[in-house]
Design a protein that fits this description.
This protein is α+β, with helices and mostly antiparallel strands. About 30% of the residues lie in helices and about 25% in strands. The N terminus is likely disordered.
């Protein structure tokens, strides 16, 4: 299905705002693989899944920290995001800052499944869970609707960056069949 980049970004922002991604977290630790495993390596599938999981955990943790600070301190995302994913997050963070929003709590994810892997990138599906989060305005008032969706499906690509870190480079809301249970 053909999708325009701005439509995907808008859908991503809408899902971010409507489903309430975020919260606080712990220190950010960037993954440091020097090269991803090749399919010929018998341990490659489990190692690739582990690398994808670590990359996405780092991305989610950094996102949570920045949004918990109302969109300030976006430079923290550079350790775990690059490319389109970083650009789109910067726009979302600026929106949070201009509206005076702050996220409380912590996102989680599950159902991660690798779709493709090469020596430079991994593409996978993941389900974000925002049930432990809240979105508050400048006065600390919750903006969350009680019947919000708390799980959302994403297609994510993590790429090996020039500094040998595996970073989320593409993160798109999945518009196909919902694979989140």
């Amino acid at each position: 299905m053909f999708r325009q980049k701005h439509t995907v970004r808008n859908a991503s922002l809408i899902v971010l705002l409507l489903t309430l991604l975020t919260g606080c977290g712990t220190a950010i630790t960037a993954p440091t693989p020097s090269i991803l495993p090749t399919p010929e390596n018998s341990n490659s599938r489990s190692l690739t899944l582990e690398q994808a999981t670590t990359s996405y955990e780092n991305f989610q943790r950094a996102r949570d920290l920045v949004l918990a600070d109302g969109g300030q301190g976006t430079e923290r995302m550079k350790a775990s995001a690059t490319g389109d994913a970083l650009e789109e997050f910067m726009i979302d963070a600026q929106d949070f800052e201009s509206r005076g929003w702050r996220l409380v709590g912590r996102t989680s994810f599950d159902s991660i499944a690798v779709q493709r892997a090469s020596t430079t990138e991994i593409t996978y599906y993941v389900c974000d869970d925002i049930s432990g989060t809240d979105l508050v305005d400048e006065g600390g008032n919750s903006l969350v609707k009680p019947d919000r969706a708390v799980r959302s499906p994403w297609s994510v690509t993590s790429s090996l960056s020039p500094d040998a870190a595996l970073k989320v480079s593409v993160r798109e809301f999945w518009v196909g069949d919902d694979f989140c249970d």
